[in-house]
Amino acid sequence: MIKFKHIYFSYEDKEILKDINFEIKEKERVVLLGINGSGKSTILKIINGLIFPQKGEYFYKDIRIDKKALKNKEFNKIFRKEVAFLFQNPDSMIFNPTVYDEIAFSLRQFDFEDIDDRVKDIADKFGLYKYLNDSPFHLSGGEKQKLCLASLLVFEPKVLLLDEPTANLDPSGVGWLIDFLYDLDITTIITTHNLSLALELGNRGLVLSKNHNIIYDGDLEEFIKDERKLIEAGLVHIHKHRHKHLEHKHYHIHDWD
Ligand SMILES: Nc1ncnc2c1ncn2[C@@H]1O[C@H](COP(=O)(O)OP(=O)(O)OP(=O)(O)O)[C@@H](O)[C@H]1O
Ligand SMILES: [Mg+2]
């Protein structure tokens, strides 16, 4: 469904992705791991057709996604309806006067007929019903994140790209999202650098190194057990333990965020 062939991407002279290759099949649950700045958000932006690689090819359902393909209005509409992207920062996605209009926006763009029913139904599922007439800018960070996710899922995309979706959520919100995603029967690609959460979000791990290439693609549980790979990815940290008469160091995989 999604294929990257020898993708290279740079911002000006900064090389962010180096020879990235992978293929994702329909309904796979992929977790994209890597330290800050490794290129996770950049990969999602390419998959969403927001930026284009300088070298290499990206195919969505065997169609090469480049500027020319997305200039075709008919294809652009289909692609935008099928591939949905939840940004790392929900504030950058919100722009409508009310929560209702925020959720309805894409439904109007995509010419849905049952807009009112869909908006109310998803608002109810996401605990946003009571805010429908309020300004989305007045919601809390976690509520904004839920609103952005509701605004995407309401048009039933086939691929959901989530960039650090748990960042603004409290523990009960994280639990809610994990259960919600588990029941979704679509292709999901989720970025995180939180290893303990990763296993709850998918079963295939795609791991970027600090050198911006892929160092692991496979079973996520196996990756998390592989200390050598974890160190290579920079996803473990070392710190000193100070006990009464003893000081020692070892690697940790626990997450502090
Ligand atoms: N528009 C831009 N112009 C220049 N450099 C950029 C731009 N966007 C991102 N970068 C740089 O590209 C690198 C990779 O960014 P990216 O956002 O893909 O990383 P990430 O893996 O998502 O990191 P994080 O875990 O912090 O979200 C970073 O060093 C970043 O500073
Ligand atoms: Mg990012």
Automatic annotation (TrEMBL):
GO molecular function terms noted in the UniProt entry: ATP binding; ATP hydrolysis activity; ATPase-coupled transmembrane transporter activity
GO cellular component: ATP-binding cassette (ABC) transporter complex
Signal peptide: none
Location within or outside the cell: Cell membrane
Residue span(s) of domain ABC transporter: 2-236
Superkingdom of origin organism: Bacteria
Pfam families, A to Z: ABC_tran
CDD domains: ABC_cobalt_CbiO_domain1 (cd03225)
Keyword annotations from UniProtKB, A to Z: ATP-binding, Cell membrane, Membrane, Nucleotide-binding, Translocase, Transport
Membrane topology: Peripheral membrane protein
InterPro entries per record: AAA+_ATPase, ABC_transporter-like_ATP-bd, ABC_transporter-like_CS, ABC_transpr_CbiO/EcfA_su, ECF_ABC_transporter_ATP-bd, P-loop_NTPase
PANTHER family membership: ENERGY-COUPLING FACTOR TRANSPORTER ATP-BINDING PROTEIN ECFA2, HEAVY METAL TRANSPORTER
Protein name as it appears in the record: Cobalt/nickel transport system ATP-binding protein
